[in-house]
Amino acid sequence: MNEIIPCDIIQDLLPLYVDGLTRETTSRELEMHLARCSRCRECFERMRRGIEEEKSLQQQEAYRDRENPGDQENHKKGQKYQPFPVNIPAV
Ligand SMILES: [Zn+2]
Questions:
Q1: Helix (H, G, I), strand (E, B) or coil at 58
Q2: Cα torsion at 43, 44, 49, 54 (round to 10°)?
Q3: 2-13 tens-digit pLDDT
Q4: What's the pTM value of the predicted model, to 2 decimals?
Q5: Under a CB-based contact definition with an 8 Å cutoff, are residues 65 and 75 in contact?
Q6: What is the 8 CA–ligand 1 centroid distance (Å)?
Protein backbone atom coordinates (compact mmCIF):
# COMPACT_ATOMS: atom_id res chain seq x y z
CA MET A 1 0.00 0.00 0.00
CA ASN A 2 1.30 3.36 -0.93
CA GLU A 3 -0.11 5.97 1.37
CA ILE A 4 0.38 9.53 0.29
CA ILE A 5 0.69 12.10 3.04
CA PRO A 6 -0.90 15.42 2.10
CA CYS A 7 1.56 18.25 1.54
CA ASP A 8 -0.13 20.25 4.29
CA ILE A 9 0.84 17.65 6.85
CA ILE A 10 4.38 17.42 5.52
CA GLN A 11 4.81 21.15 5.70
CA ASP A 12 3.41 21.23 9.23
CA LEU A 13 6.02 18.66 10.23
CA LEU A 14 8.92 20.32 8.45
CA PRO A 15 9.83 22.71 11.30
CA LEU A 16 10.12 19.71 13.63
CA TYR A 17 12.11 17.79 11.08
CA VAL A 18 14.51 20.69 10.54
CA ASP A 19 15.02 20.88 14.30
CA GLY A 20 15.61 17.14 14.43
CA LEU A 21 12.57 16.55 16.62
CA THR A 22 10.77 14.01 14.48
CA ARG A 23 10.98 10.30 15.13
CA GLU A 24 12.79 8.01 12.77
CA THR A 25 9.60 6.81 11.12
CA THR A 26 8.35 10.33 10.60
CA SER A 27 11.68 11.49 9.24
CA ARG A 28 11.70 8.63 6.77
CA GLU A 29 8.21 9.47 5.57
CA LEU A 30 9.20 13.11 5.24
CA GLU A 31 12.32 12.26 3.28
CA MET A 32 10.34 10.02 0.98
CA HIS A 33 7.83 12.77 0.40
CA LEU A 34 10.53 15.39 -0.16
CA ALA A 35 12.19 13.16 -2.71
CA ARG A 36 9.00 13.12 -4.76
CA CYS A 37 7.48 16.51 -4.09
CA SER A 38 9.39 19.54 -5.29
CA ARG A 39 6.96 21.93 -3.65
CA CYS A 40 7.61 20.56 -0.18
CA ARG A 41 11.30 20.22 -0.91
CA GLU A 42 11.44 23.91 -1.72
CA CYS A 43 9.65 24.65 1.50
CA PHE A 44 12.11 22.50 3.39
CA GLU A 45 15.15 24.15 1.80
CA ARG A 46 13.79 27.57 2.66
CA MET A 47 13.23 26.54 6.26
CA ARG A 48 16.68 25.04 6.59
CA ARG A 49 18.28 28.15 5.13
CA GLY A 50 16.21 30.28 7.49
CA ILE A 51 17.63 28.45 10.48
CA GLU A 52 21.18 28.82 9.23
CA GLU A 53 20.59 32.51 8.61
CA GLU A 54 19.20 32.87 12.11
CA LYS A 55 22.39 31.40 13.54
CA SER A 56 24.65 33.69 11.55
CA LEU A 57 22.39 36.65 12.29
CA GLN A 58 22.95 36.12 15.99
CA GLN A 59 26.67 36.31 15.40
CA GLN A 60 26.32 39.38 13.19
CA GLU A 61 24.27 41.12 15.85
CA ALA A 62 27.12 40.67 18.28
CA TYR A 63 29.39 42.60 15.97
CA ARG A 64 26.80 45.20 15.08
CA ASP A 65 26.17 46.03 18.72
CA ARG A 66 29.81 46.82 19.24
CA GLU A 67 29.63 49.42 16.49
CA ASN A 68 26.30 50.84 17.56
CA PRO A 69 26.29 52.58 20.96
CA GLY A 70 22.55 53.28 20.79
CA ASP A 71 21.81 49.57 20.70
CA GLN A 72 24.18 48.88 23.53
CA GLU A 73 22.28 51.27 25.74
CA ASN A 74 19.23 49.07 25.42
CA HIS A 75 21.17 45.97 26.24
CA LYS A 76 22.60 47.50 29.38
CA LYS A 77 19.12 48.16 30.69
CA GLY A 78 17.87 44.77 29.66
CA GLN A 79 19.46 41.37 29.64
CA LYS A 80 23.15 40.71 29.92
CA TYR A 81 24.66 40.41 26.52
CA GLN A 82 27.41 38.09 25.45
CA PRO A 83 29.40 39.66 22.65
CA PHE A 84 30.69 36.30 21.49
CA PRO A 85 29.35 32.76 21.63
CA VAL A 86 31.12 30.92 24.40
CA ASN A 87 31.06 27.53 22.77
CA ILE A 88 31.80 27.45 19.10
CA PRO A 89 31.00 23.93 17.92
CA ALA A 90 33.70 22.28 15.89
CA VAL A 91 32.39 21.89 12.37
ZN1 LIG B 1 4.40 17.74 -0.87
A1: helix
A2: 90
A3: 568 999 999 999
A4: 0.59
A5: yes
A6: 7
